[in-house]
Amino acid sequence: QINTLVQGTLGYLDPEYFHTSQLTEKSDVYSFGVVLAELLTGMMALSFDRPEVERNLASYFGSSMKEGRLLHILDQNIDEANIEQLKDVAHIAERCLRLKGEDRPTMKEVAMELEGILVIEEHRWGSDNVFSEETENLLKTAQSVKNVEDGIGGSGIINSYDSYSLNQISMSIGGR
Question: How many helices (H) and strands (E) does the chain have?
Fold first, then answer.
């Protein structure tokens, strides 16, 4: 005889399961939303060491998002330099944590949205790298190499930039 019992950890288990005793594809989405909320806040899914309104991270995260307090609940160790990406991930987590499964995105939608955030971030970094290479190439092109007598009969090379070239570089960089 085979018994199938749901083994779930409180704080991660889909709230709909408590009413229907059925797990759906959207149950995993809810659990993933809890994981995202944990990553963003640095808090455990369930903690009796926190004040009552904060004990269940999913509900605390959801109410904090509705009240516009994301920045207040973010983990202090998170670099807020990419605040737009953090807000996007938090919005995904909020949607994953909706009480009704039908109101949650599918896991495929979540994956696509997270990948979209990653692509935007990689593109932003990629642009910086291209800009650096472009700037370096401009500097190399603008550089003029002059031979000078060192007074002892030998010659040395001095790398210099003429003011016209530097002006052109700063104009092309500033014009972006």
Answer: 7, 2
Query: Which has the closest alpha carbon to 98: 8, 6, 14?
Result: 14
Asked whether residue 37 is assigned to any structural domain, the reply reads yes
Does residue 90 belong to any structural domain of this protein? yes
91-109 as b/e, with b when 16 or more CB fall inside 10 Å? ebbbbbbbeebeebbeeee
**How many CB atoms sit inside 10 A of residue 33's CB?**
26
132 domain residue, yes or no:
no
Q: What is this structure's pTM?
A: 0.66
Inter-residue contact 93 to 40 (CB < 8 Å): yes
Q: Would you give per-residue pLDDT tens digits along the chain (176 residues)?
A: 665 666 668 899 999 998 888 889 999 999 999 999 999 999 999 999 999 999 999 999 999 999 999 999 999 998 878 899 999 999 999 999 999 999 999 999 999 999 999 887 666 655 544 444 544 444 444 333 333 434 444 444 444 434 333 333 333 333 43
